[in-house]
Structure formats: C-alpha cells, structure tokens
Amino acid sequence: MDRAEEIIDLLSRKYRINPEEFIVNKVKGRPLFDMIIGVLLSQNTSDKNAIRALHNLRKAFGDPLNPCMIKETSLEQIEELIKPAGMYKQRAKNILALSNLFCKENFAEELIDKIKAFDPEKARDLLMSLPGIGIKSADVILNQYFGKPVFAVDTHIRRISLRLGIVKSKNYRNISDWWMKNLPQDKYLHAHLLLITHGRRTCKARAPKCGECPIRDYCEYYKSEKGG
Question: What is the model's pTM?
Fold first, then answer.
C-alpha cells in the first residue's frame, strides 16, 4: 500500500464521517443552483455557519432554492439572510448575480450539458467563470455533483499536507495533484472528507492534538516540533 493510501486507511480507522457536518450533504440531490449556492456559502467559514445561512435562504426562497424569487429580492434582504456565513455583502452580490444567470431560460441545462461533456480542466474553467466561484469551489462541485475525478483542497487539507511534508508550498494545484496521483479515483471523495474531519478534530491550526493523531508517524511537523 502506498503512503497516501496508508494515511487514508489509518484515518478511516479513527473517524466515522458524519455527513451532517458537511454542507454538500444538505444540497445533495438538489438542482445545480443549490449546490453552487451551498458551496459559495461555505467559503472561508465553517460548514455549520454555512448551513444556517442556507436554511435561512430556504425559508425565504423554497427548497430547492428558486433563483427567480431570489432575483427579485433586494440585496439587503439577501445580506440579512446569509449573515451567519459571514462576508455577507460580497456573498449576497454573487448570489444575486448567480440568480440572474440561473433564471435565464435553459441556462442551467446548457451549463450542465457543457460540464458533463468537458474534461475536468475545461469544466473547472467554466465553473470558475461564474460569480464567486474559485478553484476549490469549482472542484467541490465537479466532484460531488458531476462525479469528475478532481480533488478539492480546503484549508484543512492544505494544512495537513504541509505538516505531513508531502508538499513544500501552499500551492493549490500542487497539493491537489499529489493526492490525485497517489490515490485511486474512487477514493478521492472519501479521502477529501476524511482529511477535513481530521483537520477539524485533531490536526487543528492551533494546538494540534498530535498525541491523538493516527498518522503522526508520517508527519514531519510531529517529528520536528514534537520530538516524535
């Protein structure tokens, strides 16, 4: 078993993934618009806060979300609804812009058809052309909505990867490429969720619980900082 697979195997023995902790579980099976809004709300904040903001939007605009209802709403009202997620002024502008796009006839259907037909690189570029969608958000959508073989890197995965020493820089593509090259495609999503869970519960940004870490024998941070 390769190093990456050993790491994921050890993490899977320690953690049971709780889908309720992830906002993508709240938009599973909904239209693409819902997935995009959910991912947008989760940027640079906790999934817990993003889920609260999504719940507020659903109370106001239905479940699944109705982009045409949102389109007719004031920016100030959207801001108030999504305040739990933080950064609400910019998020509200992006949500309103996305609603205008998805309210156009056949926009969603044509976007979905293009993404399905495109390779991951071209599909990512297309998603990143949408308001508020960066590379990490695009990869989450590509993997979890379209099943594309991409590996999304959030702040937890970046931190863990750097501490393990598998990469030397914070470069998104370098980290993503390492996990993709060293894991089977059918393990991308499971590994993504496991690493985030590990970052939330054990390998925290401050005061990591190295003594409880199941992968500390692979970790350069532990060996150098903790004298392991």
Answer: 0.94
Query: Domains of the chain, with CATH numbers?
Result: 3-17+151-225 (1.10.1670.10), 31-144 (1.10.340.30)
| Angle, CA of 215, 221 and 223, to the nearest 5° | 80
Cβ neighbours for 82, distance < 8 A, ≥ 6 positions apart:
41, 53, 56, 57, 88, 91, 92, 95
Q: Which residue has tokens 């817990």?
A: 48
CA triple 124-128-134, angle to 5 deg: 105
Contacts of 9 (CB under 8 A, 6+ apart): 1
The pLDDT-based confidence of 118 (bands split at 50, 70, 90) is very high
What is the dihedral sign for C-alpha 62, 65, 67, 72? Answer: positive
Cα(4)–Cα(19) distance, integer angstroms: 23
Task: Write out the two tokens for 166.
Answer: 């598998």
Contact 36, 98 (CB under 8 A): yes
Q: What is the pLDDT of residues 32-47, one digit of tens each?
A: 999 999 999 999 999 9
Residues ≥6 apart with Cβ < 8 Å to 135: 124, 128, 172, 173
